[in-house]
User: What shape does this take?
Amino acid sequence: QLQLVESGGGLVQPGGSLKLSCAQSGLQGDYYAIGWFRQAPGKEREGVSCISTTGGITSYSDSVKGRFTISRDNREKRAYLQMNNLKPEDTGVYYCAMAPYCRGNVAPVESDYDFWGQGTQVTVSS
Assistant: This one.
């Protein structure tokens, strides 16, 4: 059974860091892109970052560019989102999802992604 499980969320002060993890199980092979999305209270879900199968293509939304870094370890079947210099507006539920590809020149598009994890809460507050 295919599963994506996010972890690493929590409460952090502005300016702090968190590293989210997305663990995949139940799928043989690595031929999928991973995207990270977030949803703030009362807002629509937005694409944050994505990474291609080999990690050679990545993309970020303008709001996180320069602060967040996406990576993956195909041997461990995990993807990561390192989040630095966090701001209160980064607060939300963060989801990882799978897609056939990462577009690479724009933030990930939700309709490209066909399998989702349950999400992990990130709260940035003093």
Summary: The mean pLDDT is 95. The radius of gyration is 13 Å. The chain is about 0% helix and 45% strand.
